[in-house]
Each structure stands twice: as C-alpha cells, then as structure tokens.
Amino acid sequence: MRQRHRWAAVAGLLTLGALLAPAAVPLYDGVGFPDEPYRFVPHRGSGPAATAATVRLKVKGGLNSGGLLANSAELGPQVSVYAPPQAFQLPSASAAGDITLTARPVPLTPPAPPGQLQSNVYELALTSPSGAVIVRSDAQQPGITLRAVSTKEPLPVMYFRASPDQRWQQLETRQVGRDIFNAAAPGPGDYVLSRAAAAARSDSGGNRGLFVLVGLVVLLVVGVVVGVRVLSSRRPDAA
CA 74, CA 88: separation in Å to the nearest integer? Predict the structure, then answer.
C-alpha cells in the first residue's frame, strides 16, 4: 500500500507540471478565407498597391447625420475607420456640404514611433467644402482598425500623432481579430502599429523564466521516480 501512495504522489507532481507548462497551440485554425499578402508603402514587389479607405458623410444641422464604416480594398482590409453619427461638426449649424473621411497609406515621415513598425502609416483626414471639420469631444469617438503585418509576441500597439512635427503617442489598443487591432481615433493625423522593443525584451525574459520553472518541475518529478524505485528495491511491500 505504501508503494501505491508513492505513485499517487508522482502522478500529482506530473499533473502539476502539466498545469505549469505553456498552453498548447491549436493545430488547426479552421476553414476561412486567408488574407492576401500585406501591401506596403513604399510599394514592394509586383503586386497591387495599398489602398485608401474613404467615405462621404451626409450633414444635417452642421453634424454628420449617420454612422458609416470605411474600409480599404484589400482582402482583408488593412485599414478601417468607423464614423459614428454626429461625431463630426462643421464650423456652423447652417454649413452645408458633405464631410469626406479618408484614411490613406503614406510613407513614414521621421521620426518613427518606438519599436518595430507592424503596419503602414495611415493618414486620417476630414475635409469639407464648408471649412474645418471638428471631432466632437462630447460624442462617441470614431474608431480606427489596422491590420498588422504579423502577430508575433509581443503584440503591437497603435500610435498616433496629429502632424509630423508632433510626438507619437501610444493609444489604448484592443486586439479584435487574429491580426487586427483597434483604437479610438483622437482626430485627423497619422496612425500606425508598432511592436515596442522594450516589451519584446520583457516578453522573452518572461518566457525564459517559465522554461526554467518547467525544467525544475521535470527534474523534481524524475528525482521522485528514481527515489521511489530505490526504496521499492530495498523495502519489499509488506501488504
């Protein structure tokens, strides 16, 4: 009976090791329509160029009257912008003319944001024949979604600057798809995804710590198994 208790302890340690090990990666990701290769700016290769997302917003009482989604033409879209109802305001309530929202890929004007770029830079613009378009702070914020070049860890975050002479600022970023990331858009300006170098170093350090922990658990299990066998050979089971 004593030997059974020993093997029960070994089984418990093996279970603990399995719980501490990293989660398994799915072998099959399901049936779907894969994205086409990423289109870069400046243009690379012989494929089609990257496209812009654009939409015209009807205006009533100086505000855009409806919400619309603008997607670029890639499969899947490399940029999407959601324009909520009444999020944009013209100079006066009597101003007429549609608002045109455009997010177009542009070459990076240095400096770059921290880390390694994971998308094109997209310039978001709001124009109207009636004058400057204001993003209302008391309405639902527009949202911008960018597709990333890759999904390597650590995951990228979105950066924004209102103009090339201003500093990049990191936006609160949500992963809404395998390689799709979304953030609230503060207003016109440049948007890009970047994987921060500091986060990459921190992530690799965390992985090393996890591997060390798993290795120690494995060594402990092996030690227990060897010990049980040695004791069993010296003490016959009296049961």
Answer: 27
